[in-house]
Design goal:
This protein has 361 residues and is α+β, with helices and mostly antiparallel strands. Helices cover 24% and strands 30% of the residues. The protein contains seven helices and 17 strands. The structure holds FE2/S2 (inorganic) cluster (FES) and fe (ii) ion. The site of fe (ii) ion has 6 residues, from helix 2. This is Toluene-4-sulfonate monooxygenase system iron-sulfur subunit TsaM1.
Amino acid sequence: MHYVVRNAWYVLAWSKEIGDTPFSRRVLDEPIVAYRKRNGELAALLDRCAHKLVPLSLGQVVDDTLQCGYHGLQFDGSGACVHVPGQDRIPPAARVRSFPVAERYGAAWIWMGDPERADPGLIHVIERYDTPGWAVLWGERQHHLTHYLNIVENLQDPAHTTYTHRSTIGNPASSEVAPVTEEADDHIVTYRWTLDAEPPPIDRASGAFEGLTDRCQYYRFFPPCVSRVDVVTMDAGQEHTEANMDRGRRAYSYKFLTPETDTSTHFFWMHVRNFGVGDADFEARLACEFSRTFQEDNVVTSAMQREQNVTGLRQTAWLNIDAGPARARRMIEKMAAAEAAEAAGAASPADAVSRRTVAAS
Ligand code: FES
Ligand SMILES: [Fe+2]
């Protein structure tokens, strides 16, 4: 795959998706099969039998092992073959690759790179998770038919919301406000405040605001695969302190992007908020609204991917609004180049970047 970082935790699935039957999903263009053992632990293996390459997900889970559905070889959670029907000797080559997995925040995270580096402490920390007065909404997994960097760019691009999301989160007042992009230690942020404006449809429908509002959006990207949009809508005219923002409608909108192939991505979303807590009907409406919103992005970025495939191009004109998306993309490209350089034993990551730039020009 192009432009992917392997040494990172990606969401493989929501925890509830994986039970005691084989679960298959393609990640970074590799077939993965996962299952849950009797003690509740997860295991993830390459979904390819070491005998004749049959996907192990076509078999079944037997005594905490995966039994191939062709000739019955059994592999344990480490990928070692523990049983060959009809013979005692287990050939040394009868082993499949296993992947580190960890569960946190209701998700199963997988590490596709060097297993030695798979420290669960590196899993992204979710803001206000398990905090009294805040609710967590787990969205469905969406399948977006576009390279994940197109989504990374989309999520770092406030300018599209007015047009792509007219019926959901779009706000015409925002389109005239130029976003600002800054780089922090571990992420990039593009933000803007829209002051003294009508609230967008999603906030107007809540009935929480009678007059004009101040609204901010901070689009944060934590490479390589976590996006968080911090949104606050508050009555206009107040100071923008943390305490006042907490008194408004405040939410952290997470997306976890897991590359599937060069032209498709698993798109998981999660929403953490301080309003409508405990209101199941409201939450159901919110889930529908977000689902529609992100499918609106899918329509645009999938269509864009089809044109990119046809033309071999990504973009033909550059605007001021491209600053944030371009920086996010460059962060990934640099990380991917550094990994490739390390793997190839190059002198330095910078060396690999410059060699690739020369090769591409
Ligand atoms: S292909 Fe799996 S046991 Fe033969
Ligand atoms: Fe969008």
